[in-house]
From TrEMBL:
<dbReference type="InterPro" id="IPR037165">
    <property type="entry name" value="AldOxase/xan_DH_Mopterin-bd_sf"/>
</dbReference>
<dbReference type="Pfam" id="PF01315">
    <property type="entry name" value="Ald_Xan_dh_C"/>
</dbReference>
<dbReference type="InterPro" id="IPR016208">
    <property type="entry name" value="Ald_Oxase/xanthine_DH-like"/>
</dbReference>
<dbReference type="InterPro" id="IPR046867">
    <property type="entry name" value="AldOxase/xan_DH_MoCoBD2"/>
</dbReference>
<dbReference type="GO" id="GO:0034875">
    <property type="term" value="F:caffeine oxidase activity"/>
</dbReference>
<dbReference type="InterPro" id="IPR000674">
    <property type="entry name" value="Ald_Oxase/Xan_DH_a/b"/>
</dbReference>
<protein>
    <submittedName>
        <fullName>Caffeine dehydrogenase subunit alpha</fullName>
        <ecNumber>1.17.5.2</ecNumber>
    </submittedName>
</protein>
<feature type="domain" description="Aldehyde oxidase/xanthine dehydrogenase a/b hammerhead">
    <location>
        <begin position="20"/>
        <end position="135"/>
    </location>
</feature>
<dbReference type="Pfam" id="PF02738">
    <property type="entry name" value="MoCoBD_1"/>
</dbReference>
<dbReference type="Pfam" id="PF20256">
    <property type="entry name" value="MoCoBD_2"/>
</dbReference>
<keyword id="KW-0500">Molybdenum</keyword>
<dbReference type="InterPro" id="IPR008274">
    <property type="entry name" value="AldOxase/xan_DH_MoCoBD1"/>
</dbReference>
<dbReference type="GO" id="GO:0005506">
    <property type="term" value="F:iron ion binding"/>
</dbReference>
<dbReference type="InterPro" id="IPR036856">
    <property type="entry name" value="Ald_Oxase/Xan_DH_a/b_sf"/>
</dbReference>
<keyword id="KW-0560">Oxidoreductase</keyword>
Amino acid sequence: MTTKLFGQAVQRVEDDRLLRGNGQYVDDLMPGALHAAILRSPHAHARILGIDVDAVLDVDGVVAVYTHEDLDGAMAEPLPLLIPHPTLTHGRTQYALARDEINYVGEAIAMVVAVDRYVAEDAVGRIHVDYEVLPPVVGIENARDGELLVHDDVPGNRAARMEQEVGDAEAAIAAAPHRLSLDLEVERSACMPMEGRGTVARWDTDSHRMQVWTSTQTSSGVRAAVAAKLGLDLGQVDVITPDVGGGFGVKIVHPWPEELLVPMAARALGRPVKFIEDRREHFISSAHERGQVQHVDVGFDDDGRLLGLSVQFWHDNGAYTPYGLIVPIITSTQLLGPYKPANYKVVFDSLYTNTVIVTPYRGAGRPQGVYAMERTMDAIAAYLGKDRTVVRAANFIQPDEFPYDQGLLFQDGRPLIYDSGDFPASLEKLKALVGWDDFERIRDEARAEGRTVGIGLACYVEGTGVGPYEGGHVHIETSGKVKVSTGLTSQGQGHQTAFAQIVADELGVPFEDIEVVTGDTRRSPYSVGTFASRAAVMSGSAIALAARKTREKVLRIAADALETTPEDLEIVNGVVQVKGAPASRIELGTIAVLSNPLRYAFDEASKAATQFAVGDPTKPPVADDDEPGLEGKDFYSPLRSTFANGMHAVVVETDPDTAEITILRYAVVHDCGNLINPLIVEGQIHGGVAQGVGGALYERMAYNEHGQLENASFMDFLMPYVSEVPKHIEIDHIETPSPLNPLGLKGAGEAGVIPSAAVFASAIEDAEGFSITSMPISPSELFALRLHHEQKLQEGPHA
């Protein structure tokens, strides 16, 4: 029998090619293409009074120069606001090239196309722009006081205000036996994929067809945008996503200005054009995330059980809102985690600042929400003098309460209904994994050695598999090989392996006979994209359904050929055979031949499929409800998102002199439903934890009052190296299958990063004995907090 592969730790098939340097990224494509370089604003806020490109026109090797005046039609209009929302009353997007005002350092003003990147960059430096510099709005505090405006027509810099409430939170808090208030902050950060953004385009003047290769998380989205903005039929545009060196959310925005400008220039010039982002451009002109200021009011009883929870927060959305309110909506809803407050109210303002736009970054608003909720749980435990795990357990949704309706609307506009989970079991696993109940002994031993250690935990729930749909196509060729395609893209997640495992089990074919293609609109024109931990749930389910359709056809054709019934057949290692009589068999490749009743016999195998050789003469060769070929196609569209969950714990040591923070132990318990490939899931957790360490302890975007990003290079922007991430991550899984999809899957891609700020704040606070209210935290900030805490102790309680 064919070995079952679903759930097995199969080695990734992608790795051999990628590790040997045989990947094909955007910059590897189209040698000889013209190169584009972008002039970007040096000011955070300014009016453009004039642009002089005369000094560029005669530069040897320059082919074209574009400013907003050279754009026409839809290209001259603002970029699309991708996800409108009723509460986004003042949504604003930028132009592909700035028209008369710029609103952040790095905004695109002009594009030069030249024979190579060196000439293009030199030419960009010769463009003269006359600016009227305006005072910028930097930071949430300046944005919400409304004294200065980013956009003159947006009062108070407020893009949106949104409120959701279940019950009467304020009344419940006022009546509660105990009440607390917390003021919290999470600073800006950003993802740093190994490969920056990149686009290359070629216009075929004979067929009037545009081909675009781009480093994106949504090939179909880029396709639609290019067609709309360039006035092309959708069928005239092909978008192919080659290997992508990391996405993490920044490449889900579509279109970036360059993804339109490059195809536009390629069509105008009749030559391929390429743009490759450099590292400084990524810092100042891609996207950031995380920045929020939060206020929490909570009422609770003697057991720490939530009676009322009211949260208000202010979200920095940067200069524009191309991705709508997705990030703060996720914060406001995922904040609840595995808990069930009896009454909940959340209000947020999404504010404009003269800084880089904010769009989803791995975790996408969840780290901020988890931070607010878990800091609140820790504060309740400290107030009552209870163990932090006990307070959490008192508030858990219980296993017999699923599906659990939180009474809110999620990011997809569907009800926030948790489909499955077992939070008490996860907590018990985590406590055992990290040695929670034995930690006081470890703390005492460390204290005897003059060392300071602390332990923290954080719980989260993650909405995954967001709709509306994804598709899958499975095609068995006459060779017996299986070709699988899906429209969403891959950025290192192991799709080629995991999807092949699904098909191998569904069809009973050898794993090595399956090839998976993603992100190519020529193969899968309809797709949504790779984000929100949705690939396995959405495309995995669609591929499974397509494979089942293919299997049904295989057995039907084979039954006719073997003169039996489909129920009497099985597929073993790519061969259809009669159950209990394996000598009566037929190869999949032969069935593929039989599925296509050609008029012509090209070889011995196809002779059996000609109209003159086979078939019931009373029936048409291809039935009315059938089509030639051995393939299946299907789409999966869920009723609502499915919800993964997990819990992290960390043990840290804080240096008494330098306040450096060292990770001694890190543990994760994770529930993403049925595991397709545990090896890939654990790899996702490892990568997420590493990013989470960066976001909690190192990475931040340091803007000065002029809106200049002061650490826009790897010389100044701190990221954890292998020496800073945990040497070993202790991982355990709990599998509560989702009832919402055919494979019982829940997403896994973002889990590792979601609770990081909260879990490190919890552990550092436990070690130091004073509150941690702002993340990320550096040694110098921790040192300053120590001094402040010592000073308050010396002044006494009435100071």
